[in-house]
Amino acid sequence: MFTGIVEELGEVTAVENLGDASRFRLRGPVVTEGARHGDSIAVNGVCLTVVEHEGDEFTADVMAETLKRSGLGALTVGSRVNLERPTAVGARLGGHIVQGHVDGTGEILARTPSEHWEIVKISLPADLSRYVVEKGSITVDGISLTVVDAAPDHFTVSLIPTTLALTTLGVKQPGDPVNLEVDVIAKYVERLLAHGQEAGR
Fold first, then answer.
1. Distance (Å, whole) CA 181 – CA 137
2. Which of 62, 75, 82, 95 has the highest CB neighbour number within 10 Å of its CB?
3. What is the DSSP-derived secondary structure letter of residue 85?
4. Per-residue confidence (pLDDT) for residue 187, from 0 to 100
5. pTM for the whole structure
6. In terms of DSSP H, where are the helices of the chain?
7. Mean pLDDT, rounded, for 7-25
8. Phi and psi dihedrals of 152, rounded to 5?
9. Is 79 within 8 Å of 105 (Cβ atoms)?
10. Mind listing the pLDDT tens digit for each residue in 70-115?
11. What phi, psi does 165 have (nearest 5°)?
12. What is the CA radius of gyration of the chain?
């Protein structure tokens, strides 16, 4: 489990096409400290497993399904990525509950800068719209954010200078894809209510 609090802005150093999968090598001095084979690291909000670890770099295999459902397939050598290690049991939950299981992708539609923050408008797939509410939580490229406005086909978030400086959302521009993970609690509530309605028939 993750919290959506990005630990560092890493970099893709190599991409190997494996046919039905890809192997990424990524640099991240913070998240690789003490990393071992089999550990989990979230890359732009996608939970990946460490295959190899050497120095401040690690490799991870990404299967075709993950490449299709996320924006990882668009990464190239030199791409910047948000990195986060799983939260430790008993640690503070700084963001919200994030699984690292991407539900779909959106697209940066517009950026509106202000004096001390920036409003970013992001497209929203129709099948995820019902899970996104004003002032609710959403994960964008692995970043835990609060929804400012929610519409059927888009939502907006307000980014403080720290988020702009330390994550990929500081450099992504209109047209760029982003990974989206909606609040898992909303999905469980929907499922339980559906079963309750079926049982009452």
1. 9
2. 82
3. P
4. 84
5. 0.90
6. 64-69, 161-166, 184-199
7. 94
8. -60, -30
9. no
10. 999 999 999 999 999 998 777 777 778 888 999 999 999 999 998 8
11. -80, -30
12. 17
